[in-house]
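RNA helicase structure dump, as promised
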Amino acid sequence: MLDPNEAQWLTVSDLYERGWTDPIIKRLPAPTRGTNPHHKNSPKAVRLWSLEDVMRLENRPDIRAQLERVAGRRAGRAERRRAQELQRQNRAFLGGLALEQAFDTQALETMTEGDRTAMLLVRRLHQAILSALYDTQPVRSIAEAQDGLRTVMEMTGADVRHSRYLKNPQLLASCAPWLGRGETKRERSLHNLLQKGYTASLLRVAAVILYEYAQRGEPVPAEQILALPDFPVRKLMDSSLYQIYLVDFIPAMIRSQLSDLITVDPKDEYPEARMMQRRFVIHVGGTNTGKTYESLNRLAQAESGVYLAPLRLLALEVQESMLERGVNCSMLTGEEEDIRPGATHIASTVEKLDPHRVYDVAVVDECQMIADRERGFAWTRAILGCCAREIHLCTAPEGLDIIVRLIESCGEAYEIEHHGRKCDLILVDQPIALEDVQDGDAFIAFSKRNVLLLAEQLRQIGVPASIIYGALPYATRKLQMERFLRGETRVLVATDAIGMGLNLPIRRVIFTRDRKFDGLHNRALRPEEIRQIGGRAGRFGVYDEGFVTATIDSETIWQGFSAPVEPIRQAMLGFSDLVLRVDHDLLEVLQVWNSIPAIEPYKKMPIDRYIFILKTLQECGLALDKEQSLRAATIPFDEREEELMDYFLLYCGQYLAGREIEWPRRGKSSLDGLELYSQMLDLYYSFCRAFRQPVDLDWLRTEKENTALQINELLVRELSQKGKSCQVCHAPMPISSKFRVCYKCMMKRKKQSHIQMHGKKSG
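structure tokens r here:
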């Protein structure tokens, strides 16, 4: 059965999502049957169409017109649904606005006596009902309910023994004239609805409890009250004041405040950029086409400028390049900084852009990352909000359309420069053996474990390798790259991190896997990823040709190398600091912000990480204010790593207590332990900077350099010809092993320990 990957084949569901209808689908070539690319484990075969055929048909004018009409109809239906939802929210908002007054002590003090009586009536009845429903001690519950109702009766002047009151509970409705009041028809309708629903339920409950109280003169068990046929439990649960206030009114209030603060069109959040006459130069090309090089030449000529990188290693590389050209350039990332006195330029990661600072020239690298789920918002922010007179955007071809759309929405001028490769890139669509390694090879794996295992396999056949993967400290990555550049190692073993602009003399890019875990799913590589990584082969000036191949026979790689790449259709959108001005809990504000749909062509970034951190802070009783909470939630660290999270919470507690932020403690001297310690140092620095706490930069710099050197020495020593060995029998061991002795010696020790223990028991 055909097992295509999701990047090259589309199911009928995919076509429907693109706006296709059955008549249009019939115009495609006959489908292939194969495994559903979205459900690899499903044995059921489905119809599949190639992406190339779909895109060819979509480019026809008549088909494009049909798809636009379908999209228009769908947009109309979606708009009607949004209007209905908005109407419901408005009704909830108006009702909540009235009901909120019953819980506002200051508002009650300014009301007339009649209105105040009505508000207190609803408030006391509501509190009595909640007490009766949710308290685990029935006697106390009913006693509190009785006390509340007695207070209500005293306020309204009613006599609990008055039979007319019990027979006609609607008399109490006259004590709440505000429920039937409203200036507009919509308001009156809503108030009537509330009166018939929730208020009527309150009155029925009051009548039941009062009746029992008057008849027996003693507390009634809560179970009996809840079991009475007239007790409207479901109605109270469905339309209680608490639900109306919390579920409808609070989000509506937040939504209203957000709409007042945050503009509908994201471009309008950057008024300083809108007041400038910016000019864009879009550099379009694949990997190794020189687009970034030409942009940096222009940056070096400018009186002031900023370079925005996807990686801090690239920011450091550009800073060093600028300094070599005689340009005074600082460097700023989330984990470190090198601010030089009198610097006219700065190289930073894209998230660190200051949208209020004006530059002559800006360079934004790897702009196709604008669609990245976690970080794409930073590229959107840079394009819309960077205050530079001339902005150079470097992107892969799939990013061109969305970039042009954003620039045109700002009404600004742009030009497009296409860049081609200066040396040929050749696909070798036959798998190679590991033993066929050549100098200048780069083996690509997609996890730290696979990188280390592959490096160990190369060591065993006598091939020293440099290593690059995500958890490796940046200083160690640089040391490993320098070993490769100097020829101390013959090959490079890396994750897909090398696809991001790192200039290395690579002759062949060799894939060892055709799938990767992207944080959500273990999926097949996409054509754009294969090209981005494979394009690193064949550096101009070093090799005349570059080659792309694999150690596995993979149709994903062979076909993906030349498969059409879909253009990016949406730009990721982040939330603004303006959320701090909304007068509600930050957690609630972010959740409401996330529920508000973004306009095209934007898509809101996932905020799961922020929600998790904010909830954890609340659960731990760390009472940071809103501005402090947002600062804490945006600190870059891996919140899934338990020890890092413990240090983060410790630092928050020390900050609130006014204590000095303590240095992290070094743990194990293993590879994992040193990498974790390096991340702790980054967290320490980032937290202190975010909360303006003093940092011992000399100590920190020394610790980071020593840790990076230790990791590098560990990799060099254990990937040398001798490799890592057992401390008992000196047998070779894989570098990825967490133990100091081999499995054979470990089992031998356990056996000896068991014999000794057994002998002691026998004695």
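The chain has six domains: 9-59, 95-259, 266-418, 424-560, 637-718, 725-762.
lmk if u need the other ones
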